Amino acid sequence: MFKHLKKRRFIVNVNLKLAFPEQSKQERNHLCRQHFISLGQGLMDLALSWWGSDKKLQSLSRIEGKEHLDAALSKQQGVILLSLHFTSLEIGGPIVSSFIKDGLHVVYKPHKHPLLESVVAKIRANRYGKAIPKNKIRTMISSLKKGHCVWFAPDQSFQHKNSVMIPFFGIDVPTNPSTSRLAKITHAQVVPFITVRQYDKQGRATGYLLRFLPALNNFPSADVTQDTLRINQLFETQISGFPAQYLWAHKRFKNSVASGIDYYESNT
């Protein structure tokens, strides 16, 4: 993939240069290559998530901070499980769903091909509990109001009229503010959650870390922009801990307001 997907390699390099300007070109090239390795491993992770045994997944995983999820669930109200797109994202689904009595309601981007969409939605529903297309806002609200746990990853570029311009690694980009709005409407707790791959000293993948952080205090506030900035800052912290594993292959900085520059112009 690193060798042949030139357009994606260009996008990854642009994103890394914007997010980590302090790094040398050599350091970013190395990080780019490591990211493509992580992408390839992510394809294997996806297969394991969808078709692997729960026992196998659990044996490969280390859980950190589960008490934060348990505390939020104990309040008998909806929980937004706030995630971001690491390459092993879906590994967390079947494991977390096993912690929750009625399963996990996962929000996902529908596939454009109707047959693939039908198959993927069915797999996710069977493995996790319920699959909710990301454009079904009323369904998300209904699930949260009924006290379910909704798994949601709003970190990617959001090119819609309701987007807000929020700094991401120091650059204002269109950002999805719906976490704050969903929490306000449903009174749901917001528990940040990531799934990342772990490696040994020789760089070999050994398993997965599932990390739950404490539910966000004083959230939502009266200011949706500040809430969304707070979430972006949280995302930046988590990404900086595992930079090769974040999904840099999409145009996260598209339609930035910085000097009217299209950072991806030379390869569009």
Give the strand order of the largest sheet, numbering strands 1, 2, ... along the chain: 1-9-8-2-5-3-4
Please give the CATH architecture: 3-Layer(aba) Sandwich
Distance between the termini: 19 Å
How helix-rich are the residues, as a percent range? 40-55%
Tally of helical segments: 9
CATH class bucket: Alpha Beta
Specify the overall morphology. globular
Count up the domains.
Answer: 1
The gyration radius over C-alpha positions equals 18 Å
Explain how this protein is built.
The chain is an alpha/beta fold and 268 residues long. α1 crosses α2. It has nine helices and nine strands. It has helices at 6-19, 25-51, 54-59, 66-73, 92-97, 114-128, 137-145, 178-186, 224-241; strands at 61-64, 79-82, 104-108, 129-133, 149-152, 164-168, 171-175, 189-199, 205-212. Helices cover 42% and strands 19% of the residues. It has a seven-stranded mixed sheet with strand order 1-9-8-2-5-3-4. β6 (164-168) and β7 form a beta hairpin. The chain has a single domain, classed as Glycerol-3-phosphate (1)-acyltransferase. The mean pLDDT is 90.
Brief summary:
This protein is α/β, with parallel strands linked by helices.
Give the helix/strand layout.
Blueprint: H1 6-19, H2 25-51, H3 54-59, E1 61-64, H4 66-73, E2 79-82, H5 92-97, E3 104-108, H6 114-128, E4 129-133, H7 137-145, E5 149-152, E6 164-168, E7 171-175, H8 178-186, E8 189-199, E9 205-212, H9 224-241
Parallel strand pairs: 1-9, 2-5, 2-8, 3-4, 3-5
Antiparallel strand pairs: 6-7, 8-9
Helix pairs in contact: 1-2
